[in-house]
Every structure is written in structure tokens, then in C-alpha cells.
């Protein structure tokens, strides 16, 4: 099912004028605070009535201001996951889950409760009350409650924002499973490049109430202009298969026929992972270096270079593992005589890839194409 959204709304000095299509999978609304992400989600949920708009989920129109169609929130069949779990404190986990199912339409296709409990790993929590749960456990129960309401669409408004790094690491795999195993679309709000790299199949980038770019996750994440903090947060997402766990604590991945070593990854051989590699963690050399401590050295071809506003340059290169970005100084680019077509080697320290930047495979991580940068030199996404 595809979600089609077109909205116009003014709130004080802020003006929202956005239009996008969210295909099946997990679509992330991505942008700085104040860019309009939550406003869009609340309009889709029916919690905010826009000045003008049309929202269609599959063959069902939720809102069409021109035709006078404005379904109430409870008739839109949406599961909403907030920053906090918002569970009923006087009910057990089992009762909170049953509350979601109680609101499901009688004849609507329903998720099996036992399957949802297993999917989210909350079987041991069923008789507890929310006060006895950690932040991550509360969010898993909130996800389950949303799923059991038989929604046609799931909305998640920065569901990890209130959690510390340990709790985020706990919850991210459950959102990956949700993306890969649940058939309904998910609209997810975030301004975290790590979350987006781990979860997104599609990205809709927002700035000042407008959609500035949209497309598959790998393509979009290769474009620093999409990121809230610009080139400093640039990084590409590569897809790789777990090849072998070594006795010294390293995991060897097969990235397009090239070995990629990371600290031990908790996935069995044969599993496919998506790995975000930050541009500032990539060093370039014209010749294959010897005598380095870095284990990951990938041959590549420079596709394009673009200087930013400061002394930095983003270099896009194609490697056997897929698209990589390197953030280097202009002086280095000139010293190496880099230009499109230059043969280089990308050097990546094994320990530079953070655990939160490694996630399950899923869809939407095909390698980004090699062409097209924005006028300011920070975009490497094909146009």
C-alpha cells in the first residue's frame, strides 16, 4: 500500500507546503527541528486539520479538503507510536496490548497476538505494569499495542528520542523486524542519521516546511545536503553479507566480493547487513598503502568531487562494496590530483564503525548512482 500526502498549512510564521509519496516499507521524514516533520505526521493522524490537503492510504481517502472528506482520527485506522510509550500505568502489559486490539474493527485483518509478542520479545513482560519496565521495554510494548489495533498505517514520531544510547541499541533491531516482517507502511520521524541509515527504505527530506529531496535510502544518505548538519554528517550505506566470525573478535563481511572487517557483529554467517560508513572516517590514497594498522582497504574510482563552503571537499567514489563518500580537505584533493576517473584506495579503520551504524539488511539499500552533486558541493545524490 502506498501513502500519498499533499498538505498546506500555516501556523504563525511557519508555512508547510509539502507533497510526497511513501511506498511500502519504512519511510523516514528527515530534517532539522522545526522543518515540519511532526506537523505532517499529526495531519496524517487526524490530530491536526491542515488548511488544505489530500491524504490517501492505498485506495482509502483519509483527507480531501476540496471534496470535504475529513475522517476522524479513530476512523483512520492508524497506529501511533510517540516519543514516550504512553502506556496506561494501571494496566499490565497484557492489558495494554488488549486495549489496542479492542479498538480494531471487527472484520479487519488482525495481527496474531502471540506473533507480535514473539516479534517484540515481550513475552516475559506480560504480567508487569509500565512502572516496572525500562524505557526500551515500554517502547516495545507501545509498538505491540499499535500493531494489535489492526492499523493500515503505523506512525512513529521520534520514538527513540527519549532513550539513551543503550536503550536505542535495544530498540533498533525491533524496528528493523517491524520494517521487514510487517506488511503495512510505516511513516517514521527522525533527525538522526544513524536511525535513518539503520531503518529507512525511503527518505523524505524536509527543510522549512518543504520537501527538498526524496528517494531510496542509500541514494539519499549519499547526499550530505539531505542531512540536518550538512557534510559533517555525510556517510554512505553499504550492504554486506556476514562471511565469518574470527577468534580475535572481528567479524568479516563480504561487501561486493571485498572483505570488510568490523568489531564482532551479533549476526550469523549468511545474514545481510547494512553498514553506515561516515565520510570523515574514510581516508584516500592513490596507491595501495602498506604497513598500516587499518584492515579495510577498498579500491575505488572517483566519480565526482565537490568543495563545500569551508576547506573541505566531498569525494564520491565507486568501490566493489558500493558507493562511498570521503570528506577530505581541498589541499589533500589537489595534492592527490583527484579528478573523475582517478583510481584510488579507500581506507577505513575497523573500529571507526560504531555498533549503532550496523543493522539488519532489509530493502532500500541498493548502491547509490555515481552522478550529480548540488551547486554547493555537498550533494552526491543522482538527480
From TrEMBL:
Keywords tagged on the record: ATP-binding, Cell inner membrane, Cell membrane, Membrane, Molybdenum, Nucleotide-binding, Translocase, Transport
InterPro entries hit by this protein: AAA+_ATPase, ABC_transporter-like_ATP-bd, ABC_transporter-like_CS, Mo/tungstate-bd_C_term_dom, ModC_ABC_ATP-bd, Molybdenum_import_ModC, Mop_domain, P-loop_NTPase
Q: Which residues form the ABC transporter domain?
A: 1-233
What's the name of the protein?
Molybdate transport system ATP-binding protein
Whether GTP-binding counts among this entry's keywords is no
A GO term for molecular function: ATP binding
What PANTHER family would the database entry show? ABC TRANSPORTER I FAMILY MEMBER 10
- Region: Disordered; residue ranges are 362-383
NCBIfam families in alphabetical order: modC_ABC
| Residue intervals of the Mop domain | 291-357
> Sorted alphabetically, which Pfam families does this protein's record hold?
ABC_tran (PF00005), TOBE (PF03459)
Q: Which GO terms describe its cellular component?
A: membrane
Amino acid at each position: 500500500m502506498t501513502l500519498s500526502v499533499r498538505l498546506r498549512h500555516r501556523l504563525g510564521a511557519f508555512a508547510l507546503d509539502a507533497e510526497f509519496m511513501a511506498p511500502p516499507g519504512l519511510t523516514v521524514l528527515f530534517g532539522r527541528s522545526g522543518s515540519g516533520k511532526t506537523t505532517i505526521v499529526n495531519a496524517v493522524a487526524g490530530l491536526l486539520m491542515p488548511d488544505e490537503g489530500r491524504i490517501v492510504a492505498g485506495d482509502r481517502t483519509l483527507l480531501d479538503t476540496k471534496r470535504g472528506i475529513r475522517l476522524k482520527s479513530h476512523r483512520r485506522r492508524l497506529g501511533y507510536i510517540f516519543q514516550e510509550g504512553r502506556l496506561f500505568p494501571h494496566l499490565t502489559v497484557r492489558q495494554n496490548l488488549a486495549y489496542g486490539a479492542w479498538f480494531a474493527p471487527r472484520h479487519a485483518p488482525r495481527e496474531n497476538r502471540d506473533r507480535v509478542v514473539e516479534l517484540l520479545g515481550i513475552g516475559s513482560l506480560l504480567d508487569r505494569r509500565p512502572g516496572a519496565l525500562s524505557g526500551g521495554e515500554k517502547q516495545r510494548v507501545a509498538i505491540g499495542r499499535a500493531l494489535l489495533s489492526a492499523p493500515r498505517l503505523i506512525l512513529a514520531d521520534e520514538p527513540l528520542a527519549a532513550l539513551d544510547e543503550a536503550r536505542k541499541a535495544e530498540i533498533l533491531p525491533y524496528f528493523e523486524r517491524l520494517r521487514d516482517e510487517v506488511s503495512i507502511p510505516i511513516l517514521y520521524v527522525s533527525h538522526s542519521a544513524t536511525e535513518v541509515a539503520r531503518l529507512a527504505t525511503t527518505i523524505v527530506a524536509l527543510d522549512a516546511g518543504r520537501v527538498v529531496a526524496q528517494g531510496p535510502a542509500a541514494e539519499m544518505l549519499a547526499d550530505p545536503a539531505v542531512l540536518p548538519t550538512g557534510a559533517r554528517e555525510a556517510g554512505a550505506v553499504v550492504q554486506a553479507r556476514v562471511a565469518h566470525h574470527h577468534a580475535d573478535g572481528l567479524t568479516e563481511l563480504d561487501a561486493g566480493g571485498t572483505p570488510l572487517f568490523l568489531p564482532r557483529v551479533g549476526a550469523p554467517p549468511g545474514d545481510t547487513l547494512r553498514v553506515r560508513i561516515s565520510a570523515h572516517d574514510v581516508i584516500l590514497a592513490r596507491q595501495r598503502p602498506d604497513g598500516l594498522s587499518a584492515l579495510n582497504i577498498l579500491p575505488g574510482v572517483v566519480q565526482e568531487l565537490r568543495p563545500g563552503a569551508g576547506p573541505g571537499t566531498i569525494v564520491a567514489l565507486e568501490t566493489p562494496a558500493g558507493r562511498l563518500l570521503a570528506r577530505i580537505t581541498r589541499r589533500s584533493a589537489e595534492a592527490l590530483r583527484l579528478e573523475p576517473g582517478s583510481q584510488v584506495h579507500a581506507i577505513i579503520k575497523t573500529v571507526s564503525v560504531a555498533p549503532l551504524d550496523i543493522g539488519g539488511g532489509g530493502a532500500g539499500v541498493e548502491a547509490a548512482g555515481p552522478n550529480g552533486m548540488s551547486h554547493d558541493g555537498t550533494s552526491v545524490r543522482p538527480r
